[in-house]
Amino acid sequence: MTSPETAGGEKMQELQRQINSVMKTINNNSKVTAFMNSPVGQYLDERPFLSLSLLVFIALSAVPVGLFLTVIVGTAVTACLGVIILEGIVIAVCGVVLLCTLCGIVILSFGVSGVLSVCYVAISSIINYMHTSRLLSRTINLTHSDPQDGDSLTGRKVSKDSTHID
């Protein structure tokens, strides 16, 4: 029977293999390679927080921009019917609303990026701590496994008072 720690480790390794496979597929795409070799791609590659903020901003602004374009098409149809003044007013009001919405989304995207960055640092620190403590416990178990044969890590004989005998 496998321990929960071993099963969890195997699941993490499988998840890591799947993520690496997806990353290789994305990185081998010719359009991604061309973008990453461009000056903008290199700039964003050097600034991951800005890249994450830009990605969150684009994702969050898709709906308001889509609604704005829908209103523009609707007012253009209305303008074709002869209501030009109404179109100008609606476009101006919608433009101001879109500007305010996008400014709010910029602030929100920086906040979300900050939270995601903190979560990444915290989770990676926790995983690193767990991995280090597991290696340390294995090292201690190997050291104390058979004291008559010697230290299994260095290959030296160890006496009962823990001094090395060569």
Could you please describe the fold and organization of this structure?
- With 166 residues, this protein is mostly helical.
- Helices cover 80% and strands 2% of the residues.
- The protein has 5 helices and 2 strands, in the order αααααββ.
- The chain has helices at residues 4-27, 30-37, 39-46, 48-80, 84-143, and strands at 157-158, 164-165.
- The chain has a two-stranded antiparallel sheet with strand order 1-2.
- Helix 4 (48-80) runs antiparallel to helix 5 (84-143).
- The longest helix has 60 residues, at 84-143.
- The radius of gyration is 29 Å and the shape is elongated.
Q: Summarize this, please?
A:
Its main location: endoplasmic reticulum. With 166 residues, the protein is mainly alpha-helical. The chain is built from 5 helices and 2 strands, in the order αααααββ.
Residue runs with pLDDT of under 50 for 5 or more positions:
none
* N-to-C series of helices and strands: HHHHHEE
Helix content: over 70%
Q: Strand count, sense and closure of the main sheet? A: 2 strands, antiparallel
**Average pLDDT taken over every residue:** 83
Main location: endoplasmic reticulum
Protein name: Promethin
Keywords: Endoplasmic reticulum, Lipid droplet, Membrane, Transmembrane, Transmembrane helix
Family: Belongs to the LDAF1 family.
